[in-house]
Design a protein that fits this description.
This is ACP phosphodiesterase. Its cofactor is FMN. The structure is a single chain. By secondary structure, this protein is an alpha/beta fold. It is about 40% helix and about 15% strand. The protein starts with a strand and ends in a 5-residue tail after the last helix. The mean pLDDT is about 95. The structure holds ligand FNR. The site of ligand FNR has 13 residues, from helix 1.
Length: about 190
């Protein structure tokens, strides 16, 4: 079965290495996964004062999540957690109360950093957040990608064979996971 996967890049930086990773994942995904980016850059800072009347940018963000079968988070680690911009986006999507966009929406988490633990702590935090948001999370594979200069080119081509294979397997597993979750928990909309 073919699925639509919305990917969210946790970094807003022009030179983001996680954006490069997302480009690599788009290239390496099996044909049955159709990847579309769900941007977070233009969301204002969330407050529940908006709950009665979400601004158009936040409505569009929730709508984009509603239109995909699963979400893939590609995130850096900032100060041993997820970037504030990503947490802000998740807060928007999780509200208003009773209209949590992540409920029953399968997700996967991946990230890269130059450090040797490759965003492991940020990913652990993100998993906690997504559990609370009732998103069925792919537990394995885990993917902590240590970024070395030249690992991924601007167009998303990965320069070393073992990383290429690992990322391809990650996307294959994500496909299997989405299929399994949506067989047990079919979408209601
Ligand atoms: C970092 N960096 C970083 N790296 C890491 O492995 N663990 C960490 O806790 C942090 N903390 C941190 C905080 C802040 C505010 C910045 C800007 C950076 C380094 C980080 O991994 C590196 O800048 C990556 O390039 C970030 O990914 P993007 O934004 O390029 O995708």
């Amino acid at each position: 079965t073919t699925f639509k996967v919305g990917y969210i890049v946790g970094s807003l930086a022009k030179g983001s290495i996680n954006r490069l990773l997302s480009k690599a994942l788009v290239q390496l995904a099996p044909p049955a996964l159709q990847l579309v980016e769900i941007p977070i850059r233009d969301l204002p800072l969330y407050s529940y004062d908006y709950d009665a009347d979400y601004p158009p940018v936040a409505r569009a963000f929730k709508q984009a999540i509603a239109e995909v079968d699963a979400i893939l988070f590609v995130t850096p680690e900032y100060n041993r957690s997820i970037p504030g911009g990503l947490k802000n986006a998740i807060d928007w999507a999780s509200r208003p109360w009773g209209r949590n966009s992540f409920a029953r929406k399968p997700s996967g988490v991946i990230g890269t950093s130059p450090g040797s633990i490759g965003t492991a702590v940020a990913q652990a935090h993100l998993r906690g957040v997504l559990c609370f948001c009732n998103s069925p999370l792919m537990n394995t594979m885990e993917a902590y990608i240590q970024f070395k200069p030249g690992l991924i080119s601007e167009d998303g081509t990965v320069s070393d064979e073992s990383t290429t294979e690992f990322l391809s397997n990650y996307m294959k597993e994500l496909h299997v996971f989405i299929e399994r979750v949506l067989t047990v928990l079919p979408r209601e909309d």
